[in-house]
Design a protein that fits this description.
By secondary structure, the protein is mainly α. It has two domains: 6-81, no CATH class; 98-245. It contains ten helices and five strands; from the N terminus they run βαβββαβαααααααα. The strands form two sheets. It has a three-stranded antiparallel sheet, covered by helices on one side. It has a two-stranded antiparallel sheet with strand order 1-4. Strand 2 and strand 3 form a beta hairpin. Helix 3 runs antiparallel to helix 4 and helix 4 (129-145) runs parallel beside helix 7.
Length: 249
């Protein structure tokens, strides 16, 4: 007896599988995603299980081809070149959480804005210590619940500037050196508190020097994993490539 063949498309795939991707690393160290299910209709065996099994098998074969340099990742429509901007969140794996993505982008944009204001407030000869203290306090509040390790790795200059303020020494010659000295002390204290908040975000416990060395390595790895992305693509990344490759979020 001949089996009846049917049309199955993505609308018939369970939601939790529809956007599934298989991750791999090409010979040029670019991390790419392989879509398990194509968008076009196919004539397949009559059960959904057959379709899923066949799709996964083909994705695994394609993964091997990519790793061995036998596939042009730029031309294959099944390959996603920037998978980290598209992957679903762990707490909502069934669908891409647009609201959560927008929240993360909003928080990161605020962190970037604060970083720019902080740089302007740190100018040699005309530093505004009060403004520095206000910015550092808001950064610390952000670090408590609204920023991620990836945001810091994407914007390392923010961490570097906070580190500088932890050792701030006044180069101005104010008339009231006592008040200025107290302001410098408050700035260093606020910077240290903010840096400790960043350490907590990064899951690090150690001295500032140890943290700087470790953080530099994390930033270097992030740039290696996203080296083939444009600046705009890298800016849109909301999943840490390092954690995704380790199957964690």
């Amino acid at each position: 007896m001949t089996m009846k063949r049917v049309q199955i498309n993505n609308n018939k795939i369970p939601t939790e599988f529809r956007d599934a991707m298989l991750l791999t690393v090409a010979p040029d160290k670019r991390c790419v995603g392989i879509k398990l299910f194509s968008q076009s209709n196919e004539n397949v065996m009559p059960t959904l299980d057959n379709y899923i099994d066949r799709s996964v098998k083909r994705a695994i074969e394609l993964k091997s081809s990519i790793e061995n340099g036998l596939c042009d990742v730029e031309q294959n429509k099944q390959i996603v070149l920037n998978p980290f901007a598209l992957m679903p969140f762990k707490n909502n794996p069934s669908q891409f959480n647009v609201a959560e993505k927008n929240r993360l982008i909003e928080n990161e944009n605020r962190l970037i804005d604060l970083g720019r204001i902080l740089i302007r407030s740190m100018q040699i000869g005309k530093s505004d210590l009060l403004k520095c203290q206000i910015i550092l306090s808001e950064m610390f509040q952000l670090s408590k619940k609204r920023i991620t390790p990836l945001m810091l790795k994407k914007n390392p200059e923010i961490v570097y500037n906070v580190l500088k303020l932890c050792n701030y020494a006044d180069v101005n010659k104010p008339s009231d050196k006592t008040d200025r000295s107290k302001s410098c002390l408050r700035t260093r204290k606020n910077a240290t508190t903010t840096l400790n908040g960043f350490k907590t975000v990064m899951g690090f416990n150690g001295t500032n020097r140890q943290f700087l060395n470790w953080f530099n390595e994390s930033v270097k790895l992030f740039h290696e994993l996203t080296s083939k992305m444009s600046k705009n693509e890298r800016r849109q990344v909301i999943f840490d490539p390092e954690n995704v490759l380790a199957n964690t979020y």
